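re: the backbone from monday

yeah here it is again, tokenized this time
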């Protein structure tokens, strides 16, 4: 009994309630129990057809790549050496182009994260202005900090001078009161004894403290007047510096908001990335042109050795240029293609067998009136 007869017999049996089996990788029980066996079978056939449509071009491409590898070994040695050098150049250009593309995409991705900011040709001039404004702002900030410290010191000295003035005033009043009381006391004492020595001591003591209080009181008054003038001067300077501080702060805030940065250093780094991105983009475009030129040179060199109908092999050579650039690479390519061919052949036989099984299933499917 032939293989297809056996398949038919199994297909007939799966309609019986006691038969459950897999045929050609398909579940006969699932088909039998399906509400729409014809639709289920049609979906399996569509899947098989799609797999075949995908498989056949791959198999044909593998065959052509293997054919090219065998033909390349039979090319004249001079032509083969020329093509090897061209393959090395083309492969190197492709690697450099991919590297430039990756760098460009990384920089482009970063720039896209900052709301697609664009930088004009006059940005270096603007950057220089921002740096000058930052320098002036820092100077104003330092001056303001210094003046605030100076004013705090003046306020402290002012309070000390006020305290000194108050103390000298108290001492002066005490000295005057002591002089009055001492005079009265000595006057009363003079009736009973000699008051020369006590009078001299009283006069010297009161005179010393009185002169000391008067001198230092005058000093503290002078210090308070000078301190007041210096505080007025400090306040005027602070007002000027504050105006300068606010002006440069507003200018910097506007520029920072415009370019979405918080310092000129951030803007400079971003501009460097922008210029490098332009350079990488230009480098990528130049390498792409060089690669196309190298591909045209390879196509011209191979065209003279290939029939017109087989010029598509040139694209395959360009695709595998990394392998053709070295003798070891060519050996690895051939081994890989042979392994791929064996795998594709096995897969092709499986798909063809599935197609036959599905066709037999379709023939055995009951027709509903």
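seq for it, each position gets an aa:
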């Amino acid at each position: 009994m032939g293989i297809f007869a056996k398949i038919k017999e199994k297909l007939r049996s799966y309609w019986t309630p006691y038969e459950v089996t897999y045929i050609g990788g398909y579940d006969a029980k699932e088909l039998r129990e399906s509400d729409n066996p014809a639709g289920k079978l049609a979906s399996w056939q569509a899947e098989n057809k799609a797999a075949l449509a995908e498989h056949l071009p791959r198999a044909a491409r593998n065959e052509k790549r293997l054919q090219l590898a065998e033909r390349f070994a039979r090319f004249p040695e001079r032509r083969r050496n020329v093509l090897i050098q061209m393959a090395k150049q083309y492969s190197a250009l492709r690697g450099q182009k991919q590297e430039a593309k990756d760098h460009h995409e990384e920089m482009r991705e970063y720039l896209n994260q900052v709301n697609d900011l664009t930088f004009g040709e006059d940005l270096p001039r603007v950057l220089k202005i921002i740096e000058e404004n930052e320098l002036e702002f820092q100077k104003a900030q330092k001056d303001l900090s210094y003046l605030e410290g100076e004013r705090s010191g003046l306020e402290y000295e002012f309070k000390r001078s006020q305290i000194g003035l108050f103390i000298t005033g108290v001492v002066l009043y005490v000295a005057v009161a002591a002089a009055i009381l001492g005079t009265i006391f000595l006057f009363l004492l003079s009736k009973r004894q000699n008051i020369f020595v006590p009078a001299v001591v009283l006069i010297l003591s009161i005179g010393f403290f009185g002169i000391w209080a008067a001198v230092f009181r005058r000093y503290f008054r002078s210090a308070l007047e000078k301190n007041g003038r210096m505080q007025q001067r400090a306040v005027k300077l602070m007002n000027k510096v504050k105006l300068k501080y606010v002006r440069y702060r507003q200018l910097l805030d506007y520029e920072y908001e415009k370019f979405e940065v918080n310092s000129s250093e951030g803007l400079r780094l971003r501009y460097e990335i922008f210029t490098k991105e332009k350079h990488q983009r230009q480098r990528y475009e130049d390498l792409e042109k060089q690669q196309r030129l190298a591909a045209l040179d390879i196509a011209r060199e191979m065209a003279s050795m290939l029939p017109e109908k087989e010029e598509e092999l040139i694209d395959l050579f360009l695709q595998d240029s990394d392998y053709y650039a070295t003798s070891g690479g060519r050996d690895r390519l051939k081994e890989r293609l042979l392994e791929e061919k064996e795998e594709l052949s096995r897969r092709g036989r499986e798909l063809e067998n599935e197609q036959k099984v599905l066709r037999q299933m379709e023939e055995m499917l009951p027709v509903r009136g």
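The chain has a mean pLDDT of 79. The two ends are 32 Å apart (CA to CA).
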